[in-house]
Design brief:
- This protein is elongated.
- About 60% of the residues lie in helices and about 10% in strands.
- It has a four-stranded antiparallel sheet. Strands 4-1-5 form a three-stranded antiparallel sheet, sandwiched between helices.
- The longest helix is centred in the last third of the chain and has 36 residues.
- Strand 2 and strand 3 form a beta hairpin.
- The protein is an alpha+beta fold and about 775 residues long.
- It folds into four domains: about 200 residues, Multidrug efflux transporter AcrB transmembrane domain (Multidrug efflux transporter AcrB transmembrane fold), CATH 1.20.1640.10; about 160 residues, no CATH class; about 180 residues, Multidrug efflux transporter AcrB transmembrane fold; about 140 residues, Multidrug efflux transporter AcrB pore domain like (Alpha-Beta Plaits).
- It comes from Aestuariirhabdus litorea.
- It is found in: Cell membrane.
């Protein structure tokens, strides 16, 4: 028996409670499973623009405070309509564009007042003539484009509109429909359904007009999320694959059909409970948390194997099914509970990250691990008390007990006085190599387009097309210049904005900048016969007021806000950091009571804020997760030495994982940050089971190497099996069509395997230096 004296009578009391009332316990689990299974049917894909952004970050607070005065550049889509033959100046193309524009206009959630294309009245041309300014909509009054004269007038208007490179491709073979979106659908009052919108874009735009002589390219947050949610459907196949692989491995491990099916069934029950509870609490599954049920299943199997392994050992010693189950529960309840509580609390440390999608993942994972405490530590042994293990399995365990496997004998040398120092030395070398390699780890996206999706995905191909054919980037950062009411057009304000734009256009990664200064200079030049010498700001306030009257959308109604739009080459972390740094330096030097430069809106501004939150939370999260796990181990084992032996292998794995991320070019972002906490939380299980069993043998008076050999014979095989099983379970994600899920699969597979290696190789070596067997034997 490995239950320790300082745990008191907790386990025996619970043992009597569960095993003296087995029928009641099973009835409770049956009813709860039926109820939560019914509730599970209510789980729906859940995605929200607001959940993906750090609402407490100053940039986002500024953006939300001014959102009514800003054009919606964060949550919008761009639809590029490409002419398959020729250019856009054909009757067939303009007819198709008009129909697509009208179709998009009526899609759910579209901010129709902000919709822009060649066919909307808010896209206009402006020219200077002998009689002054002339202008109007780009589409001529006579829009019969079967008339060549009207097409020629359209071409002239497009050239005079300033939209070439923005709404019109540089090669005149495609145009863009800019579609801003409402987060809350104004028609229904409900949150915008991104999956439904994405499907409607495919059906009513891409597919419907595929035979109209045009190709459709669609990018934007809503489309990206819609594609991610669609990728969730393939997860069911991976889940089925993981169950099948685990079923085969479990049978090969136990050679007992009953010991194979029951742990799997209990793990599936845990998943049902988790999904049912999430639905009951009003949570859904977004693309980032959809893999959590995988983890719950894999964790359930890993703890189930420990139960089955112990049942086999007790049965081989001659115990009947009920006695074997009771002894198994008694010996594994404390380490199992400690491991699962460590997992759950470790996941909850993700709540320190102020991004709702990560917090939802933390809650989903914690709920899942919490239910495993019941389904695998209570339901499984109670079921096995009725079913027992097969005779063939018992005979196999008895033969194994008489054998002395050379593999375990060899591995026990990890605890020997000669090998342990070598192992610790190798660990130090790996630590330094990992620390050096992890210096290349970056925050944020490292690839263009949507790194969450595969490079060859339709979305990323569409993004590449738009990037290559338009001068204006889809990555826009908006700086909000705030003044007193009616002061945004004063010379002092415009001059400061002008200097800021010049500063930013000389920052690497900035393509161009636009603001009401841009319009003012163009108008003043036009008022002076188009002379380039006059393309500057006037000190005459009347001239300035007249010059900005046509700057639609570039200042608010009371002229207290004038946004500056920075068009960036990409949204890579280095680009965003450079732009933010230069902007903050300029703001610090120029902000006063009369003018304030505030960061930042636009999709690039949101991305920059998210990167800053992730960077700040990374170390904070690690401190919390390691602190909580260390504290729980300390409370359980009441030994700093035990904590060191369990935690150091986890720390080495975390460092090596960061080095692997740097090597593979995987940045730390919303999708990958939780992996480190998940890996630590689950990986601690191995160390807890190994150390708990090792300590029990040391208390019996064994020397360290003998105690570790006995540990390997009783628990080592189960730990090795669970490590491989967990790795295979999440390893199937590598083939996901969603790249960030594949990245999570690679990283978690690595962490699970290395945590297993650390528990079996490094923990006994550390025990040679930190554990005092004679003291434990005296206490035992």
């Amino acid at each position: 028996m490995s239950t320790r004296m300082h745990h008191g009578e907790a386990a025996p009391l619970l043992e009597r409670l569960f095993f003296n009332n087995r029928v009641i316990v099973l009835a409770f689990f049956l009813l709860a499973t039926l109820f939560l299974g019914y509730k599970m049917l209510d789980v729906r894909p859940d995605a929200s623009f607001m959940k993906l952004i750090p609402l407490e970050h100053p940039f986002i607070k500024n953006m939300l405070e001014k959102r009514d005065d800003l054009e919606n550049l964060g949550n919008s889509i761009r639809i590029s309509v490409e002419a398959e033959e020729g250019d856009i100046f054909t009757p067939e193309y303009m007819e198709a564009l008009q129909k697509i524009n009208d179709e998009v206009f009526y899609l759910p959630g579209v901010d129709r007042g902000g919709l822009k294309s060649l066919w909307t009245a808010n896209v206009r041309w402006l020219a200077v003539t002998e009689e002054g300014f002339e202008g109007g909509p780009v589409i001529p009054e006579d829009d019969d484009f079967t008339n060549p004269a009207n097409l020629e007038e359209l071409r002239t208007n497009v050239l005079r509109s300033g939209q070439v490179g923005r709404l019109v491709a540089n090669d005149f073979k495609s145009t863009i429909i800019f579609v801003p979106l409402f987060e809350i659908n104004p028609q229904t009052g409900e949150r915008l359904n991104y999956q439904e919108l994405s499907h409607q874009l495919e059906e009513k735009v891409r597919e419907k007009f595929s035979d109209h002589g045009v190709k459709i390219h669609i990018i934007g947050f809503a489309k990206k999320v819609g594609d991610l949610i669609d990728g969730i459907g393939s997860i069911a196949y991976f889940f089925a694959m993981a169950i099948g692989i685990t079923l085969i491995l479990l049978y090969l491990y136990s050679r007992c059909p009953k010991s194979t099916v029951i742990p799997l069934m209990c793990s599936v029950v845990a998943v049902v409970w988790q999904l049912g509870l999430l639905a009951t609490l009003g949570y859904g599954l977004d693309p980032y948390s959809v893999l959590v049920p995988f983890l719950v299943f894999a964790i359930g199997v890993s703890h189930g194997v420990q139960i089955i392994n112990a049942m086999g050992i007790e049965s081989a010693a001659g115990a009947d099914s009920l006695t074997a189950a009771r002894r198994t529960f008694r010996s594994l309840y404390i380490p199992g509970m400690l491991a699962l509580v460590s997992d759950a609390i470790g996941f909850l440390t993700l709540l320190v990250i102020e991004i709702d999608v990560i917090r939802d993942l933390a809650i989903a994972a914690s709920i899942g691990v919490a239910v495993i405490i019941l389904t695998n530590l209570v339901l499984l042994p109670v079921l096995m008390s009725y079913i027992g293990v097969s005779k063939s399995s018992i005979e196999r365990a008895q033969r194994h007990a008489k054998e002395e496997p050379k593999g375990w004998k060899l591995m026990s040398s990890f605890a020997s006085p000669k090998v342990a120092p070598v192992s610790v030395g190798i660990a130090f070398v790996l630590l330094f190599v990992g620390l050096y390699a992890s210096q290349g780890l970056k925050i944020g996206d490292l690839d263009p387009g949507a790194p969450e999706l595969r490079p060859d995905s339709r979305y990323n191909k569409d993004n590449a097309f738009i990037t290559q054919n338009y001068s204006t980037s889809a990555d826009v950062m908006v700086i909000m210049v705030e003044t007193a009411p009616e002061q945004c057009a004063t010379y002092a304000t415009l001059e400061a904005i002008d200097r800021y734009m010049w500063t930013m256009e000389n920052v690497k990664g900035v393509q161009s900048a636009a603001s009401l200064v841009t319009v003012s200079k163009l108008v003043i030049k036009g008022l002076n016969e188009g002379n380039l010498k006059w393309q500057t700001l006037s000190r005459n306030q009347y001239v300035l007021n007249n010059s900005i009257s046509r700057a639609q959308g570039l200042f608010n109604n009371n002229c207290s806000l004038a946004p500056v739009l920075l068009f960036l080459e990409d949204h890579k972390a280095e680009t965003l950091q450079a732009v933010v740094k230069a902007s903050l330096e300029f703001a610090e030097a120029n902000n006063s009571d009369s003018i304030q430069f505030k960061l930042a809106a636009g999709n690039a501004g949101i991305e920059a804020a998210t990167n800053e939150v992730i960077e700040a939370a990374q170390d904070q999260m690690l401190v919390w997760v390691y602190g909580v796990v260390s504290l729980l181990c300390l409370i359980t084992f009441r030994s700093i030495r035990a904590v060191i032996c369990i935690i150091i292998p986890l720390g080495l794995t975390s460092v090596l994982c960061q080095a692997l991320m740097a090597y593979l070019g995987i940045g730390v972002k919303v999708a990958t940050l939780p992996v480190i906490a998940l890996g630590v939380g689950i990986g601690v299980d191995y160390g807890i089971y190994i150390y708990s069993r090792l300590e029990s043998f040391l208390r019996q008076g064994m020397d360290l190497q003998s105690a570790y050999y006995a540990t390997l014979r009783t628990t080592g095989k189960a730990v090795s099996f669970t490590g491989v099983t967990l790795a295979i379970g999440v390893g199937t994600w590598i083939w996901s069509p969603i790249k960030f899920q594949a990245d999570m699969g690679i990283l978690l597979t690595f962490m699970f395997l290395w945590n297993m290696v650390g528990a079996l190789w490094l923990l006994p070596a550390l025990a040679r230096f930190f554990v005092r067997p004679e003291k434990l034997a005296a206490k035992g």
